[in-house]
Amino acid sequence: MVRFVTITRWTPQTARALDERWNTVITGKAPKAVLDAFAKVKVIALEISMGNNLSVLVYEIEEKDLVEANIVGRYLKDVCTMETYPTIAFEDFLKVREALPMEKIPKPEQWTK
Fold it and tell me: What is the pTM of this model?
């Protein structure tokens, strides 16, 4: 599974259109390709900041489904903007940190005076 964080933003002018578009996904009225793609997304968390017109979605997708899962973004892209970042879980970060502790990383040379 590959983990991602997507920050979705909308404006007051697109809020209703985004709500209606998501509602078609939730109620099963979106195009079949969108519903099939969304079914491949394992949602871990969804947080919404109404006052800031944004949401943060943490989710995982099987590597083999990465291309198909992008259909969901294509379906929403005209009513919002999305920034998507690949991430790792904190538990995995701890493994990285254990494999290469800071003491083994050379300190950078000072580049400003």
Answer: 0.84
